[in-house]
Amino acid sequence: MLDDARHYLLTTPEKFDIVTSDPIHPWVKGSATLYSREYFEMCRAHLNPGGLVTQWVPLYESDLATVKSEIATFMDVFPNAVLWGNLDLFSQGYDLVLMGSTDPFRIDVDAVQQRMDRSSRIAESLREVGFHSAAELLGTYAGQSGELRAWLAGAEINRDRSLRLQYLAGMALNSGRAGAIYSQILARSPFPENLFSGSAGQMNAMRKSFTQWRTE
């Protein structure tokens, strides 16, 4: 079914295990409404217990004020949010995925690996983008709300009645600051002992992957 994302969430009684949002850049007319506090509140209201919301955040063609606004707005609704990173061909920051839930996260690395092992389709899909294990995939961890709160102080919260983000993003068009922004985030995000659990072997692999991802 095809429908406008906001209209669908406003009118459906359904609840979901996962709501994923991958809109275009917020400087494109109309798309800033998919980065607003009210939109994220709608997403949260339609989650099943333990459900997840993910949101794409571009670092390229953006600047610090824009990225901070996007992350701060999401974390205003999901205070336990986690960030996952991505690199471009030159190992610079490219974009992020924000992940939020109504409940605190605790990720069992062994359970994720078992899920990959049970599904050849999942494993093959991840191999196509360079991930061969749960540790490699989860090693893309970039930060979480508690670590970034001070960094986000003063960031503008994007609201439906202002949509300030659209103008911030428009002023940052054609900016080449992705690597510098990503570095600022990583500098505030040590290995999260509170987030991951697993066997000794998996946790060692996680720490190795976490370190390699940040030094590539």
Per DSSP E runs of 2 or more residues, the count of β-strands stands at 7
Approximate shape: globular
For the sheet with most strands, the description reads:
5 strands, mixed
Please state the CA-atom Rg, rounded to the nearest Å. Answer: 17 Å
Total number of helices: 10
Strand content: 15-25%
Under the CATH scheme, the architecture of the domain at 5-105 and 144-190 is 3-Layer(aba) Sandwich
CATH topology of the domain at 5-105 and 144-190: Rossmann fold
The CATH superfamily name of the domain at 5-105 and 144-190 is: Vaccinia Virus protein VP39
Q: Please list the strands of the largest sheet in the order they lie side by side.
A: 1-2-4-3-6
Distance between the termini: 41 Å
What are the low-pLDDT stretches, counting only 5+ consecutive residues below 50?
A: none
Fraction in helix: 40-55%
Please give the CATH class of the domain at 5-105 and 144-190: Alpha Beta
Mean pLDDT: 92
- Return the structural class: alpha/beta
What letter string, H or E per element, gives the SSE order?
HEHEHEEEHHHEHHHEH
What does this structure look like?
The chain is built from ten helices and seven strands. The chain is an alpha/beta fold and 216 residues long.
Provide a quick synopsis of the model:
With 216 residues, this protein is of the alpha/beta class.
